[in-house]
Design brief:
The complex is a heterodimer of chains A (562) and B (275).
Chain A: E1 16-29, E2 32-46, E3 50-54, H1 61-67, E4 76-85, E5 88-89, H2 95-101, E6 106-109, H3 113-116, H4 123-133, H5 139-152, H6 171-183, E7 189-193, H7 201-218, E8 221-226, H8 229-235, E9 238-243, E10 246-252, H9 253-258, H10 263-273, E11 290-298, E12 304-313, E13 318-322, H11 329-337, E14 344-349, E15 352-353, H12 363-368, E16 369-372, H13 376-379, H14 386-398, H15 402-415, H16 432-445, E17 450-454, H17 462-479, E18 482-487, H18 490-496, E19 499-504, E20 507-513, H19 514-517, H20 524-532, H21 540-549, H22 555-560
Parallel strand pairs in A: 3-8, 3-9, 6-7, 7-8, 13-18, 13-19, 16-17, 17-18
Antiparallel strand pairs in A: 1-2, 1-4, 4-5, 9-10, 11-12, 11-14, 14-15, 19-20
Helix pairs in contact in A: 4-5, 4-6, 6-7, 7-20, 14-15, 14-16, 15-16, 16-17
Chain B: E1 2-3, E2 6-7, H1 10-27, H2 29-32, H3 63-99, H4 101-115, H5 119-130, H6 134-161, H7 164-172, H8 176-212, H9 224-231, H10 243-268
Antiparallel strand pairs in B: 1-2
Helix pairs in contact in B: 1-3, 1-10, 3-4, 3-6, 3-8, 4-6, 5-6, 6-8, 8-9, 8-10, 9-10
The chains are: A alpha/beta (562), B mainly alpha (275).
Chain lengths: 562, 275
Amino acid sequence: MSQESRGAVRSKDDTVVLDIQGMRVIVRTDLGEGPVLVDDVSLTLKRGEVIGLIGESGAGKSTIGLASMGYTRRDCHIVGGAIVFGDKDIRAIGPDERRELRGPKIAYIAQSAAASFNPAHTLMEQVCEASIKHGVLSREAARAEAIGLFRQLDLPSPETIGSRYPHQVSGGQLQRVMAAMAMVAKPDMLIFDEPTTALDVTTQVECLAAFRKLIREHGTAALYITHDLAVVAQIADQIVVLRGGKMVEFGDSWQILLAPKEEYTRRLVSERVAGHDFVDANVAAEVPILAVDHVSADYPGKPKVIDDVSLAVRKGDTVAVVGESGSGKSTLARVVTGLLPRVEGDVRFHGASLPPRLKNRAKEQLRRVQMIYQMPDVALNPQHTLLETIGRPIAFYFNRSRQDVRARVAELLRQMDLPESFITRKTSELSGGQKQRVSIARALAAEPDLIICDEVTSALDQLVGEEILRLLKRLQDELGVAYLFITHDLGTVKRIANKVVVMLKGKVVASGDTAAVFSPPYHPYTELLLSSVPEMRPDWLDEVLAARAAGAATTSALLRAP
Amino acid sequence: MRILGHKVSLSAQIGIAIVLINLFVALFAPVISPFDQVTPLGDAWADPSAQHWLGLDDLGRDILSRLIYGARMSIGLALIITALSFLLGVVSGFAAAVAGGWVDQALSRLVDLLLSMPTLIFAFVVLSVLGSALPVLIFTIAILDSTKVFRLARSVAINIVSLEFVEAARLRGEGWWWIVTREVLPNAIPPLTAEFGLRFCFTFLFIAALSFLGLGVQPPAADWGSMVKDYRDMINFGSAAPLYPAAAIAILTIGVNFIVDWMLSIHSRGQGEGA
């Protein structure tokens, strides 16, 4: 593979598109000045070049992206530095002039395409709207341009897809249509704000490839915002690592990935690289804690969401259920907990059949299966204190006295590495990672045999998610609790699960020990999933695309297969 | 000025002052008012004097004293009715949201039925048939008002019930009473408080309207609505008598709305959008 086509998009000439010097953004409300969101950030973007902005939530990546269009969220203000786009200082020109730039000159691609499209208009209307409105293109020219872009972005039936409505195309397709919308007016700069974060891994690969092709062919400059280093490595020439609004490190993509200078970057890189070894299988007890036996379930009047699913969880096991969105993995959790009654098959707990419906289950049966959710923000009542949240299961299941409950809550907080003084805090006052620890403490307070973890790390920042996984692992070693771990993240699976169940369209396509499932010979879908996980090498995407072109499986092909 | 860590806007400060003054007057009416509200004290429509600051009314009663006692009647009634309508509406609305299924269907259709009839006409019919005794008045308006509270409480609760902490409580095996009072209610307080202020205004105006039409508070007790009705002809003779109770109604309504606006602005202020 030649150096030119390798990995990131190469810059074509030295025309500076965007020059940011010493940008500073703060929060300012009627109560006075708030925190500094972006502090002294400088970068220069040349024509045809892609700069990746990377960092955890709160790092200021999106704020920088928006500010480079001269836009800020409510109560945020750009208070310092120069933002020069082309030959115009965005901070100096008036709002009308800025509006003239946005759309025709600078375009923005948001994380959630579904939320960014108007469901009442066709895709074509929305794709062409801005350039027609700005008078850049005539209606016919815009349509022709859009169809050309649909084709470049590998969208199915490019001539007619524009007449569909947003809900009639898939999430990955919608994200690409949004890229087409941004490109119609041929802007000088694109801003990608986490455009693939909400997508499944297999879809993410397709979108990344389409975006890169688009940028290369049009020679557009781009800012690419993401929290995933492996993703940004595929597309960016240079990477800015941000933390708390400050630039931690700035350099060539290769250098950041292979030879990071700063400690923080090293940690980000190593977390993704580390832990690809499989977890040892635990000792197998005779009767599984949970046995799901040929279970099917559906929502009334709809086809089966899960179909003939079987799995077993033994003491000390971590069984991962993996699959893309719509694979039925969360429905499986609902069936096990009884929120959705099964229609066929049996769910046995310690050998005894569990009633299909939640309301028919005994308190003791409920106590022994606990659940941890994906979004800690909504999994905890924001009005309750930690004492109420964690103490309730103790009082509810074990009828302990007030002092005993308090002592036990304090003990659990210690176990979660949370300070005991938090006991009187409300859950809404905690950070995401702390909330997830409280969720775990609440589950453990019931002293369960099995904890169902539904995507517990996917709403958290990378480093925080790693800490939660380590905590779960430690608790398992100490308490012997078993986990049913629902996730789409194969990296997590490899690190903590000893058994894995791969689901596709409600059916189990592969299951067994993690090491066996994740080593050849693979089921074709497992192979597709594995190969779609971005790796920390700038040439990873090229290799995957080459392999795909050579005939490796794709999701659509697998779905069509009987 | 700050309340519970929130900056109080100027209009809210004015609103709070208006409401506090009105509440004070209503609570201490017998102490503050210079005269009795029903005793004739002189000639009908006597001009304002040092003794009777706002003059005397059609039966020679002191208008200022009637205004003060009227505050007690109007505000007290409106508070009782609003509280009752909230009790009914919130309990049934939460029950519909948490129970779902046929309970929700039955309650929602009943409310639709009540809402399909114009409130004022419906109140007319009930009050004409059953008479305008205070308990009848209170229950009629409270039940009519509770339909609107029901709709708000139900939609607020449905949003909360779909959140995972409620699911977590269900999985734990909690009963509906715990879910309603401990999980849903604390999170529904901000929108319900704002609604309480608005509903109080509507109730207050509704009583005034009913009294004006002769179906509300019955004589000789004073309330602002019936005072406007009793004195309205005097505007033709250059007397300001009907303007005093009308102004009192307007000022209190505006005051309460100022506070409600402020509470809504606190509530709608985002929690921050993340990076």
